[in-house]
Amino acid sequence: MHKIKSIVTISLCSFLIISCATARDHCPLVGKWGSNEKATLVQMEKHGDVTEKVRSIFLNNFFGKLTLEYTCSEVTSYYKDSLVEKDIRYEIIKKEGNFLEIEYHTKLLGKITRRITLAGDCYYVPVGGFTFSEVFCRVE
Fold first, then answer.
1. For residue 63, which of 12, 29, 37, 50 is within the disulfide window of CB 3.0 to 4.6 Å?
2. Where are the domains of the chain?
3. Is residue 67 within 8 Å of residue 139, measured between CB atoms?
């Protein structure tokens, strides 16, 4: 009887580990992601060509303030912990290595497509009209 319990426990643990790994491959964005102000600033200084005024506007009003909470098919956005938009539908329409092309269907902006770069527990999304990316890192 003890051997059977051990086998069942090991089998269950193996199933859960494999399921989590498969879910992460299938839905790599699931979880909570926060805009990382310091990492974005590094990107801005390394790749961006912005004036001090524009840099100040970004840092005081945008970077480090947005949180995104993903399921496999929807994302909810928060600005300074206040709800912005809930249940935004999205789908990964293309995956190439660590690049994802994502199509979002928002009430505020309509359908938009973004190409992001996954890098460990962070991802990079280009800031429209500029030559640098905003960095989001996994919070949970």
1. 37
2. 28-138
3. yes
Name the packing angle between helices 52-61 and 37-47 (round to 10°): 160
The residues, any chain, with a CB within 8 Å of residue 138's CB and separated by 6 or more, are 31, 32, 33, 121, 122
Q: How confident is the model at residue 140 (pLDDT cuts 50, 70, 90)?
A: confident
Q: Are 76 and 83 in contact (CB under 8 A)?
A: yes
CATH number of 28-138: 2.40.128
Please write down the long-range contacts of 53-62, taking CB distance under 8 Å and 24 or more positions apart. Answer: 58/127, 62/35, 62/134
pLDDT for residue 66 is more than 70: yes
